[in-house]
Protein: L,D-transpeptidase family protein
Organism: Chitinibacter bivalviorum
Amino acid sequence: MSFGRAQALTLSFLAITSAVAIEQSSISFLIQNAEQLASGATKEGTLISGARPLHRGVSGADVLQAKQRMNEIGFPMALNDQFDPELDANVREYQLGMNMKEDGIIDKQTRFNLNLTDARRRELLLWQIPQMQALNRQAPVRYIVVNIPAYTLTAYENEKTVLISKVIIGKSDRETPLLRTQIQAIKYNPDWHVPPVVIQNDLIKDGKLNLSKIQKHHLRMSDSNGNEVNPAEIAASGETNFARYRYSQDAGAKNALGRLKFELSNSNGIYLHDTPSKGIFGKENRAASSGCVRVQEWQALAAWVLNVKPAIIGKRISEGRTYTEALAEPVRVYFVYWPAQIEAGKVRWYDDIYGLYQSNKGVNPALVTQ
């Protein structure tokens, strides 16, 4: 399915608006899209090689490939190896049509989309759709889906979308796992007990205690009996087994978990939470955590989970106390790894950040189909 200026993926989303998506209709829309892609599934396209960002002013064989690919999908232009204003304008128009950040740069996300042939899109949809159907068959009335490649969290109730939030997920070397879990409780003004992955990779560097990191984040250090120790003294003592100590951070505005934590039932130590690092939500690539998921709209999510007004959540946090509120009815959460997502009535494709597309590791075990 090639497309140009007048038809940059403008397939109508059946009778569904961009604000409210009904899960079964989302599945039907993707099935319809896969059927439409079948007509072009035998055509091959030019692949843009390499990984460097391409932008105005650069030149090379990969720029020529980009121009060839743009021609193939309906953006005619002269073929040469210069990233000129014409290519910049066409890339921006392509990004706009794909509901992507419109900056004229062929970065990792834009390159991934341009390199997707109709055949590849169809293969990915046929891999994803059965997982969506499996989820739809087992999902309760209220549930949450965290789509890792799309960096989004969506809350559903009575088969309707009630909340969508940007999220920050695990780095490529600290992947967020695919789980079916549930929110059991909410912790207000949480303290942070540093997990082993952070201790081993961030607090211990080249066999030495990373004092600058500990001091920067105002971390407390204690022994196995809970007695607080001085990090500088431990570092100077000749000690080498720094992993045997416990590290924690007091509640507060700069706490790594922000002002609120969603307690999840799992053995991986994974949970949802607020964050003091709000700026990352403005980036396209939001793989920046150590595995847990940071939620931009955490206050609205907490209000929905507890069925209270957001102002109530704000009031409880303003009290300054650290305490946990158990949910009368836990809310199920699915972590999925889906390349296609419907946004503003269009199919948006997301880069394979963990390299799991079309593999068993890319399927939530709870959604495996025979």
Residues 1-22 have pLDDT under 50 and may be disordered.
